[in-house]
Specification:
- By secondary structure, the chain is α/β, with parallel strands linked by helices.
- It has 6 helices and 6 strands.
- Strand 2, helix 2 and strand 3 form a beta-alpha-beta unit.
- It is globular.
Length: 179
Amino acid sequence: MMEKKGLTLVYTGDGKGKTTSALGLTLRAVGRGYKAKIFQFIKSPQRSYGEQIALQKLGVDMVQLGIGFTWTKTPEEHREALRIGWPKAKEAVLSGEYDVVILDELNNALSIETFPIEDVLPLQEVIDVIKNRPSHVHLVITGRNAKQEIKDVADLVSVIDVEKHYYNEGIPAVKGIEF
């Protein structure tokens, strides 16, 4: 019998559906009795999210570590959120307490170039967490612009592209679809 091995799955690309894919995986995992935790690196706890409301009913903790889109706050505010947030996510992954940990929008955070992040969210440290997590932990990393180094250590990389999007028709984010 093969030993259960935790996988690293990366959902990236410019299309809609990266977080939704991770949430679907979470639903499946919880249905199979796995313990899951979700960290969101960009979304702010100041807003309400439909997925968070539903997941609470299933006993899944979803933590917003961010303070909103990078253009809504100062670079120092974002740096501080990453400085405080990354250790919490890292601790949950390494604790072995969870069977599935979702690091939603981590790719987005790692790809920030408008201000320095390496000292508060070091890429090598993220890779070390991926490589050194307990062997049963499945890790899901979402967000645009996944770093090649992250893709290299992943077991699966799905790139979600956009062919057509209603945003281009002037339709804003829809409650129940985006949030």
